[in-house]
Design goal:
The protein is of the alpha/beta class. It is built from 25 helices and 26 strands. The strands form eight sheets. The chain has a seven-stranded mixed beta sheet, with helices on both faces. It has a five-stranded antiparallel beta sheet with strand order 13-14-15-19-18, with helices on both faces.
Length: 662
């Protein structure tokens, strides 16, 4: 009865979608087997075709052979011939040509699972068929019982696809037909995106698309069954499986290049792993081989880690991070770790392990450690990566191409715009602060007109000024160091933006750490002095090295560069005092960068005190009154940075911090 209902609903749906005159027969193409031999009784997709025939609305049925197991040729073709339907068997690869000849009015296939948004897993080759149908404007339907609809699966990306034996492709009738030594990929199913599907036919009716283009399968199931559909979980890309401390070892053993870095998969029994991520977004595992060797495995899940599944987040961010790491390593290999592997389906980056005594900088600062080379190293990193990816170095045309190739990292930029440039100055569920001590300060932010104007100006430059490829979230938790080495990690927020955003982010964390010192026990005067010295040295190193690189490579021939030789090189014909003109232009440029850096530093300091994610420097102060006192000073400093950015020198900023602490 259920299959006959599917057939009846489906026959009417296909006729309506095709738009032929009432009663005109259809030519229908199907894939795999969905008849009585596979589903019992009337069948699902083949049941729709049977229903068309019973009502004299079937002109012809075509069935794909359905390689590699040939269910279409062995089963569907048998049912068609047995029932004497007007039918033809075709090769899978002939379907598009058949459509191009205008011989297919509609396609109907079965399903192994249908996700909440309508993405459908079915026998391999279904996706190909749907793409061809979309290109030739042929309506493509899925026919399946309610039991096949799975509202608990958000998207097709969550459906695990089985790999079948290689011999199904390499052998025919027991004899090898493929070359020895060739690798084989033989997935049993593929996932057809909901966008390619015209409707999902069930025994309770046809699931239609919503205004957003999805199918809201869970809502349909709840309405027709009277039950409450489970909430779908966020999806990952096809083939994605979330790792844990046990399965990450199996993952490494299965990847030859990763296993080799650990001494070979044969040593798997001695391997161990530890999850060490202290950020808000990703999971990070140290995988060791028991003999001193180790690697880092970093995986991005489809949600914000600090919030959970209620805040979905695209895993495309992992691609951005991997590319940004590799680009930054090319510019500054001494301060960016090497990437060994990027696995897109698993959203995994495998990279160099920074062995002890490397630790996260923030933890070292909280412990009172002084890192004498930190400022020089970070200044070098900022200068080489920001200059190297800017139009000053590569020219305007190359910069436009680089931005287009890299992409916008939309989700991570949107997250930044939300938590840095908006929520701290408005009522938002994500906001929290030391309460009740800072209730008045948080309320003041929401009514501060000057600050709202300043933050919106900073947001505009963040969104519109794609000057260079940035780290995007350069704080003391994204730097690992020893007293003699420094490495920048965690580039998942990377995007093309204003230079001052990266610089300001790092300076903000130094100032936050400075103000936090008064909340710790013991004499922290030397730590405070070092932090402020770092502020000055970081900017001084950045400015000096950036201008050096500019002088070496920034005055370019032709018109592509930002400072063409025709304007600034006397040898190339520049008139007037070209060298003095260049120095004046560089000074004005660096002043703009410093102004932006102060503004973004203030924005970062503010959000780390009243926004969604705080810093351990302040959060680790257990006495709330002491913590609030430190935070209030930092808030005041951040406000002045944003409002007085144009007038401040780096020395002024340091003096301001000292004055606010006094």
């Amino acid at each position: 009865a259920n299959n006959r209902a599917i057939g009846s609903f489906g026959a009417d749906a296909l006729c309506a979608a095709v738009g032929k005159p009432a009663g005109a027969p259809l030519r229908v193409l199907t894939h795999c087997n969905t008849g009585s031999l596979a589903t019992a009784g009337f069948g699902t997709a083949l049941g729709v075709i049977r229903a068309l025939r019973e009502t004299d609305r079937l002109e012809h049925v075509y069935c794909n052979e359905t390689r590699p197991y040939n269910q279409g040729a062995r089963l569907t073709a048998y049912e068609i011939a047995f029932e004497k339907m007007p039918g033809t068997l075709i090769c899978d690869s002939a379907a598009a040509a058949l459509m191009a000849k205008g011989k297919v009015d509609a396609v109907v296939v079965g399903a192994d699972r249908v996700a909440d948004n309508g993405d459908t897993a079915n026998k391999i080759g279904t996706y190909n068929l749907a793409v061809s149908a979309a290109y030739h404007d042929v309506p493509f339907f899925v026919a399946a019982p309610i039991s096949t609809l799975d509202p608990s699966t958000a998207k097709g990306a969550d459906i695990v696809i089985e790999d079948r034996p290689a011999t199904e492709i390499t052998h025919s009738l027991g004899k090898r037909v493929a070359a020895e030594g060739i690798d084989v990929w033989n997935p049993s199913f593929d996932v057809t995106p909901a966008a390619l599907i015209a409707g999902i036919i069930t025994e309770k009716g046809v699931v239609r698309k919503t205004a957003s283009g999805d199918f809201a399968v869970g809502k349909f199931v709840a309405e027709v069954t009277g039950s409450e559909a489970p909430a779908p979980k966020p999806a990952g890309p096809p083939g994605f499986v979330a790792l844990n401390c046990d399965t990450v070892l199996d993952y490494c053993a299965a990847k030859p290049e990763v296993a080799a870095a650990l001494g070979g998969a044969e040593g798997r029994a001695a391997w161990s792993s530890k999850e060490v991520g202290d950020g808000n977004i990703n999971f990070v595992y140290i995988v060791g081989n028991g003999a001193g060797g180790a690697i880092i495995v970093k995986q991005g899940l489809p949600f914000v880690r600090v919030v959970g599944e209620s805040w979905p987040l695209t895993q495309e961010r992992v691609r951005y991070e991997a590319e940004a790491l590799m680009i930054a390593h090319g510019y500054c290999p001494q301060h960016v770790p090497e990437v060994h592997l990027y696995d897109a389906p698993m959203s995994v980056i495998v990279m160099r392990y920074l062995e002890p005594p490397h630790i996260i900088l923030r933890g070292g600062i909280i412990a009172g450690t002084v890192y004498p080379k930190l400022a020089a190293h970070v200044g070098e990193y900022l200068a080489t990566t920001l200059f190297g990816s800017s139009a000053l170095a590569i020219g305007c045309e190359a910069l436009r191409k680089a931005r287009q190739a890299f992409g916008q990292n939309e989700d991570m930029c949107a997250l930044t715009e939300q938590v840095i440039f908006t929520e701290p100055y408005a009522k938002a569920d994500n906001n929290h602060w030391t309460s009740p001590q800072l209730d008045d300060a948080a309320a003041a932010l929401r009514t501060d007109s000057e600050l709202k104007s300043a933050i919106c100006s900073l947001k505009r430059r963040f969104a519109c000024d794609g000057a260079a490829l940035l780290h995007g979230d350069l704080h003391t938790g994204s730097i690992m160091c020893t007293e003699s080495t420094t490495f920048v990690i965690d580039h998942e927020f990377a995007f093309y933006g204003p230079l001052g955003f990266d610089i300001g982010a790092f300076l903000a964390n130094l100032f936050l750490a400075y103000f936090a010192q008064d909340g710790y026990e013991g004499d922290r005067s030397s730590q405070r002095e070092w932090l402020l010295a770092c502020v000055k040295e970081t900017w001084a190193t950045f400015e000096r090295r950036f201008v050096e690189l500019w002088n070496e490579r920034g005055v370019s021939a032709g018109n592509a560069g930002l400072t063409p030789a025709a304007l600034y090189d006397a040898v190339a014909g520049a008139e007037g005092d070209a060298a003095a003109a260049l120095r004046a232009h560089q000074a004005a440029y660096m002043r703009e960068v410093l102004t932006d850096s102060f503004g973004y530093a203030g924005a970062k300091m503010t959000r780390r005190i009243v926004g969604i994610a705080h810093v351990a420097d302040l959060e680790s102060i257990k006495d709330q009154d002491a913590r609030a006192k430190c935070e209030r000073r930092a808030l005041a400093c951040g406000r002045r940075f944003m409002l007085e950015a144009k007038e401040l020198s780096i020395e002024d900023a340091v003096a301001m911090a000292e004055e606010l602490r006094a």
